[in-house]
Design a protein that fits this description.
Blueprint (H helix, E strand, L loop, with lengths): L2 H4 L3 E3 H7 L6 H9 L3 E3 L2 E2 L5 E3 L3 E6 L2 E7 L9 H5 L2 E3 L1 H16 L11 H21 L1
Antiparallel strand pairs: 1-4, 2-3, 2-5, 5-6, 6-7
Helix pairs in contact: 2-3
Length: 139
Amino acid sequence: MSNNESGLTSTRVDKWLWAARFFKTRQLAVDAIAAGRVEINGECVKPAKTVKSGDRLVLRKPPLEYDLVVMAVAEKRGSATIARTLFTESAESIAARAKIVAELREMPEPLFRGRPTKRDRRAIEQWQRTAENFNDVDS
């Protein structure tokens, strides 16, 4: 379904972000808009603000930022190839995102991943007991 077939000229920004596949649900789009992470033509907006073809949209999904121009409007979520036709992203935005992603990949792995195992927890408790004993000796 193309934009011309539906006769749609504008739609709510939360619906458009969901249809363009920036968010998995409309509620996540609404939450991002409410947090001030979406601007249309330089203005912070509310979820019901209409977006139309030609609007410039800035979307921040920390640590990434997207600088988009709306090319088409859709209210229904389609395939990823259809969603890709709804916007164009500036070359500067693409380069900045690629740089941030490269920096994140170069960062070291976190020391703890998720919940500690039973063995890890026992080692932590043993370390805490020895630290308490060490502090009692100094007093």
